[in-house]
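Protein: Urease accessory protein UreE
Species: Limnohabitans curvus
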Amino acid sequence: MLTCSKLIAGGQGLAAALVKRAATVELDWDVRQKSRFDATDSTGRAFGVFLSRGTLVRGGDVLVLEDGSLVRVQAAPQEVLRITACAEHGSAFDLTRAAYHLGNRHVPIELKPDHLKIEPDHVLADMLRAMHMTVVTVHEAFEPEGGAYSSHGHAQGHGDDHGTEAHDHSHEQHAQGHVHGPHCKHDH
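Structure follows.
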């Protein structure tokens, strides 16, 4: 069986024609958040994936197999809860409030301008409905946020070219608007 130990986030740096011709593999979120799994691509080739622990695989990423071939990852549709503000009783702020309460419970959330998506959970669905949110079950791809400290954390197509290099956030450069965090280099 072929193996894969390299991932190219979003296919960055690869020619579009190469990515377009690559075999594909559809993986749901449960698999894409693991660093070790077996898969079968669109040509029927089975392969094992062995990535660094903690690596998240996103739709649009490209796996490089040991023989040099490329496999483009597609986020497989899966059952998720789509959350929107109640058009009749709510406001745009309600979606922000819902995201806060879900985040406070460390729930993986996909954030969109007009809705949120989470994995099915009847307790959370009831909580959201009590907040006057509209919650429906849909079958769609799920790409939750990776978190503020994740190197591959925000959704694809964000538009910023942050890469994974470290940013210089020294206190002198950011005296105004400085956010204190774990990488802050002064006493609190």
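Remarks: Residues 123 and 129 are 10 Å apart (CA to CA).
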